[in-house]
Amino acid sequence: MIRRVAMAFVVLAGALMMPSGVGAQIDGKAVQAIKPEDMKWVKNAAGTQETVTLFGDPTKEGPYVIRLRWLPGNMSQPHSHPNDRFFVVISGTWWLGSGDKFEPEKTVGVKPGTYVFHKGGEMHYDGAKNEVAEIMVWGMGPANFPNRK
Question: All domains of the chain, ordered by start, with CATH?
Answer without folding.
Answer: 25-141 (2.60.120.10)
